[in-house]
Amino acid sequence: MAAVRSTLTALARSTALAGLALLGLAAGLVMLTAVLLTFLVGLVIVFPPAVRLARAVTRWQRVLAARWSGITIDDPYRPAPLPPVPQADGWYRDGRTLYRKPTIPAFNKRWNWMTKDPATWRDLAFLVSAPVAGGFVVAAPLLAVAYGVAWAAGGDAATGVVWILLAVIATPWYAPWAVRLHGQVAAALLGPTEKARLAQRVTSLDAARTEAVDSQAAELRRIERDLHDGAQARLVAIGMTIGAAEQLLESDPQAARALLGKAREASATALQEIRRLVRGIHPPVLAERGLGDAVRALALDSPLRVHVTVDLPERASAPLESAAYFAVSELLANAARHGDATEAWVDLSTQGPALRVTVTDDGHGGADPERGTGLRGIERRLGAFEGVLAVNSPVGGPTTAVIELPRAFRQRPVPTTPWRLLGRLCWVLWPIALFPQGLVAMVFKLVGSPVKSWFLALHVPEPFQWPVIVGMIALGGGLLAVALASTVRTRETENGACA
After folding, report:
1. 75: DSSP letter
2. Cα 45 to the chain's mean position, in Å?
3. Which residues contact residue 137 at a Cβ distance below 8 angstroms, ignoring those fewer than 6 apart?
4. What integer pLDDT is reported at residue 495 of this predicted model?
5. Confidence at residue 95, expressed as pLDDT on a 0 to 100 scale
6. What's the CA gap between 393 and 453, in Å, rounded?
7. How far apart are CA 439 and CA 31, in angstroms?
8. What is the DSSP secondary structure assignment for residue 310, as one 8-state letter?
9. What would the DSSP string read from start to end of 317-351?
């Protein structure tokens, strides 16, 4: 029963995706018409609505790919432009022209945003090619059943039954595979390109650099304040005490000895404060023995019962280890101070080339990065390394914080896999099956050309010519889909590989 339910679910999803491919083709034709009207006739007002329609359809493709295939596809679009800002005199400048109202400058900004974004034209290419790149693949069982019904209605019931039986037999394994393949094709065509990812990364790094500079300035002010109010004041007091002892050395040796004892105690306290300050800057155990042992030492000093698990293949860079160490220290301190926790668990592991740190405590929960300055400080510190902090802290507990720092370890070369070789082969073969053996042969068949050339479909008997033509088009689309899917899988493998 479960297998039947799974098959029916996959078949329903395949039907929905095939319908969405046809809807995407309609949206693509609308956008193509808008492009022609805009750039040939000058009717620019039809372009923005067409782009919004195309983006709405492709957004549904991304949503369904994430929901049904488990493949998350990020939006590839550039950030929307900000509204025009008036000058001091109240006018709006757009290039060398001034406007009293912001309507035209706002339109020009959005126009440039849409036309100069490569993702706009990739959406158009995807929508126009959607039936071939994905529609034929996911709709293959339905097409086979429809073709069998057509043969049965035409009087050849045996051939129709064969096609229907083939569709029924192949659907249980083919339909789920086609749905997953659709998600990979959508990820290859609708996801951000490497150039777009690089632009987004530059933007995030710029923001992280600003955060890091501010955090470093705040850290320097804290160190200066601790030195000024702590060790420096204590050392000044020690000097004054020793000076008073020198004056009493001959007249009152007993009092001088007492003052020197106080100076010795104050110097020991000052030394402890300086050592704490040094450990707060960069703990010696972290520099000498690495992140794992440093976190174990931190667990021994914590008022909580801390269980530490370490599974790291090698040491990361010193700045990154320092950021992870102080993040763990802040999380344990928050658990003890604000969460009333008694026990905590720290896990240090890898996720591909990334360092993943998981801290869980048995406190009462309720931690929120938006309200906690300590958690915001952790996010700022991690932001300098493109790290992220995810906190799950329901009221009543427990609290789980996950830190992930990408590219913490070296990446190893990805070996050539059979899937990668298959992808390369499909990249070579799909144009041959789709265009000359499929679409061009279809045109020759429709116009009734006597030339058969090397088109396979035109050399088979008449009843099988159209099935071969449709099969070649479906084969070309399937090879293209497999090639795109191999690209996505290879990219994921490269991103997940580490030394």
Report:
1. -
2. 34
3. 178, 181, 182, 185, 474, 477, 478, 481
4. 55
5. 79
6. 69
7. 23
8. E
9. -HHHHHHHHHHHHHHHHHHHHTS--SEEEEEEEEE
Nearest-angstrom CA–CA distance, 309 and 9: 41
Contacts of 156 (CB under 8 A, 6+ apart): none
Per-residue burial over 114-137, b = 16 or more CB atoms within 10 Å of its CB, e = otherwise: bbebebbebbbebbbbbbbbbbbb
Distance CA 321, CA 427 (A): 43
Ranges of H-type helices in 302-457: 318-337, 373-383, 418-434, 441-447
CA angle centred on 112, ends 205 and 56, rounded to 5°: 85
183 is written with which tokens? 């998600």
How far is the first Cα of the chain from the last one, in angstroms, to the nearest whole number? Answer: 44
For 129-139, how does the pLDDT look when each residue is reduced to its tens digit (9 = 90+)?
A: 777 766 777 77
Identify the helix (H) or strand (E) that includes residue 66.
Answer: none
Q: Give which of 440, 443, 423, 433 is closest to 471, Cα–Cα.
A: 433
What letter does residue 456 receive in the DSSP assignment? G
Strands 305-310 and 354-361 turn out to be: unpaired
Residues 296-323 have pLDDT tens digits of 988 888 888 999 999 888 888 888 888 8
